[in-house]
Amino acid sequence: MRITEKERDAVYKTIFSRRDVRSDFTKQEVDDDVIKRILTAAHHAPSVGFMQPWDFVVVSDTGAKKKIKEGFDQSNATSKKMFNEEQQKKYQQLKLEGILEAPLGICVTCDRNRNGPVVLGKTIKHEMDLYSAVCAVQNLWLAARAENLGVGWVSIIEDNILRDTLGIPENIEIIAYLCIGYVTKFKDKPELESAGWLPRRSVDKAVHYNKWSNDN
Ligand SMILES: Cc1cc2nc3c(=O)[nH]c(=O)nc-3n(C[C@H](O)[C@H](O)[C@H](O)COP(=O)(O)O)c2cc1C
Description:
single chain, alpha+beta, four-stranded antiparallel β-sheet, 4 strands, globular, binds flavin mononucleotide
């Protein structure tokens, strides 16, 4: 099956206009069939040895979201202190989650023991299962963008909060907590770029030919 030029352009449009979204969520509900589509897209991510180590916990319960938000608030207060004074001023102006505003949360997990102790492709680099679960997150993120749904990744939270709130067992690794919902807009640039936190590195600096180059 060949991808047409129009379809190719739609893929690039989706990639370049995807944003991490923490505000601008609307109250519009997300239909179950839309959720199913983006989760099915996530489930079709590549995975080491076809291990498919992920699971998805869909969170709509307000009580659960409140507990997760409290966990974020605690971790965020600790995290802020790790930066220098000047950075802290900027940090506190950033909105780094949309847990309560987003109609849905999705916790993406990784079962590191799925399909037994020896997995094709994971024999030397054991962390490949974690990377596979992250591929599922990216598929979800792009599929959501194609559905005009905003997604925000919240990582400033201790695993035990998500574990306790969502009943995730100790042997299951937590990969991501995502806030999901329709939004009033997708910003043109990453918020961290607009806020002057960091600029986008040029792609030319990121690419090396044949050998690593420190001149980039
Ligand atoms: C692994 C990972 C964890 C992230 N955690 C957070 C987070 O806790 N809070 C936040 O505001 N953004 C988080 N982000 C979003 C990044 O800040 C964002 O992707 C980056 O600034 C680029 O912006 P863009 O996604 O809109 O292109 C995370 C992104 C990734 C990939």
